[in-house]
């Protein structure tokens, strides 16, 4: 690999920044371009929190990737000198007994079989250890020790600083409008004002804006809006670990998951469900019926939060792929283009290992994930329990 090979990364979210850092470390001259500011207020990567877990049903591939990522999160904490990844564990609850073949039991079996520590909840455990939850409604579940949550916006701010310190050129104010192409090779990107950035390679990590630049992928990925809610209870200490860790409550069926109170006392919960397809530049507002569904969930599950006024709310956009898998690979039809996107609501937790996957794709290096995340045609949708991937 020639040291003067240049790479232009479009997008300064978790995909783009980790790819930029990894490629810079491999000897490339890297530029990251983004509309800015970074973290971008509309970027999927920018928020108070993201779930970090290795629980993926029977999907051993994502569990393995997640275990590698956990080690990476620990390294990042050490390198930054502060804990932006909080290893508080994760509580998975069900309103019916866990049964074989469903997400929770499959996760429990796979992870315990691999030697991870999980604590199955017995009678009375929920009421005793996690008293904010309605223990009459939730009758089964487990506590996953190798899990936690990450301060998403702070992490993106730290990564962009790391990138600049490593020699990556960070360009803001650049709104990519179209790709530059010389024959069958992509050679750069044109800004909305007509200015150009050129490089030997382009890594497109534009998230929900991917199909603006690559409309031919619009049948295989699209922006989906999911509601996010923020509450500020009067007694935030009772919504913090260990009695209130990150959680998922009947999530493969209900979609609800959430986080402990942060340093400002804000409790966040969100829904990972079908969502609604929107334009990437749509207003990021939730609907009245979405708040009503949230209130109904709280009344049933966390009654102490049900009447707390909303502190804030927003619509978070996922770049969903048709099968829920990431899209990290070279364009098979054009040289010089790598796409790293398709987070589908679950990419951030893999942040420490995403850059390596994108760099491997650019260099043509095979890894255990190459074929799963490569460019692919539409196919048969996987069974639903395998598709639970919410952050």
What do these coordinates show?
The chain is an alpha+beta fold and 391 residues long. It has a single domain (1-220, 319-391), classed as 3-Layer(bba) Sandwich (FAD/NAD(P)-binding domain), CATH 3.50.50.60. It is built from 10 helices and 21 strands. It has helices spanning 14-25, 60-80, 103-113, 125-129, 152-165, 210-213, 251-254, 288-301, 351-363, 370-373; strands at 6-10, 29-34, 50-52, 85-86, 90-94, 118-120, 140-144, 148-150, 169-172, 176-182, 185-191, 196-198, 201-204, 221-231, 247-249, 256-258, 267-271, 276-277, 310-321, 327-330, 337-341. Strands 5, 6, 7, 14, 15, 16, 17, 18 and 19 form a 9-stranded mixed sheet that branches. It has a 6-stranded mixed sheet with strand order 9-2-1-13-21-20. It has a 3-stranded antiparallel sheet with strand order 3-8-4, covered by helices on one side. Strand 20 (327-330) and strand 21 form a beta hairpin. Helix 1 (14-25) crosses helix 9 (351-363). The longest helix is centred in the first third of the chain and has 21 residues, at 60-80. It is globular and about 65 Å long.
Give unreliable regions as ranges: 383-388
**CATH fold-level topology:** FAD/NAD(P)-binding domain
**Main β-sheet description:** 9 strands, mixed
Please state the overall shape, judged from the principal axes of the Cα atoms: globular
CATH class placement: Alpha Beta
Approximately how much beta-strand content do the residues carry? 25-35%
What is the element layout, followed by pairings?
Layout: E1 6-10, H1 14-25, E2 29-34, E3 50-52, H2 60-80, E4 85-86, E5 90-94, H3 103-113, E6 118-120, H4 125-129, E7 140-144, E8 148-150, H5 152-165, E9 169-172, E10 176-182, E11 185-191, E12 196-198, E13 201-204, H6 210-213, E14 221-231, E15 247-249, H7 251-254, E16 256-258, E17 267-271, E18 276-277, H8 288-301, E19 310-321, E20 327-330, E21 337-341, H9 351-363, H10 370-373
Parallel strand pairs: 1-2, 1-13, 2-9, 5-15, 13-21
Antiparallel strand pairs: 3-8, 4-8, 5-7, 6-7, 10-11, 11-12, 14-17, 14-18, 14-19, 15-16, 16-17, 20-21
Helix pairs in contact: 1-5, 1-9
């Amino acid at each position: 690999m020639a040291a003067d090979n240049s790479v232009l990364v479009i997008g300064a979210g978790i995909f783009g920044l980790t790819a930029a850092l990894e490629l810079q470390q491999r000897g490339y001259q890297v530029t990251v371009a983004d509309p800015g500011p970074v973290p971008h207020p509309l970027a999927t990567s920018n928020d108070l929190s993201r779930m970090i877990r290795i629980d993926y049903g029977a999907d051993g591939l994502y569990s393995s990737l997640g275990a590698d990522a956990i080690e990476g999160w620990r390294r990042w904490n050490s390198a930054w000198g502060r804990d932006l990844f909080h290893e508080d564990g994760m509580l998975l609850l069900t309103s019916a007994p866990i049964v074989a073949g469903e997400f929770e039991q499959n996760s429990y079996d796979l992870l315990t079989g691999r030697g991870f520590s999980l604590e199955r909840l017995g009678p009375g455990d929920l009421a005793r250890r996690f008293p904010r939850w309605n223990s009459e409604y939730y009758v089964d579940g487990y506590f996953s020790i190798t899990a936690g949550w990450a301060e998403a916006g702070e992490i993106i701010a730290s990564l962009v600083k790391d990138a600049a310190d490593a020699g990556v050129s960070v360009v803001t104010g650049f709104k990519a409008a179209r790709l530059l192409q010389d024959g069958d090779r992509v050679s750069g990107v044109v800004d909305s004002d007509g200015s150009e950035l050129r490089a030997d390679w382009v890594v497109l990590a534009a998230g929900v804006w991917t199909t603006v630049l690559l409309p031919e992928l619009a049948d295989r990925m699209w922006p989906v809006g999911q509601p996010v809610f923020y509450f500020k209870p009067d007694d935030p200490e009772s919504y913090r670990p260990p009695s209130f860790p990150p959680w998922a409550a009947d999530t493969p069926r209900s979609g609800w998951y959430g986080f402990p109170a942060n340093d400002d006392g804000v409790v966040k919960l969100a829904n990972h469900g079908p969502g609604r397809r929107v334009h990437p530049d749509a207003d990021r507002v939730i609907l009245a019926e979405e708040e009503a569904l949230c209130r109904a969930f709280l009344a049933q599950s966390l009654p102490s939060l049900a009447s707390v006024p909303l502190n804030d709310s927003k619509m978070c956009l996922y770049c969903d792929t048709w099968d829920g898998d990431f899209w990290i690979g070279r364009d098979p039809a054009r040289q010089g283009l790598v796409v790293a996107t398709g987070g589908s609501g679950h990419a951030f937790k893999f942040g420490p290992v995403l850059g390596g996957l994108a760099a491997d794709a650019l260099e043509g290096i095979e890894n255990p994930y190459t074929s799963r995340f490569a460019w692919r045609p539409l196919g048969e949708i996987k069974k639903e329990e395998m598709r639970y991937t919410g952050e």
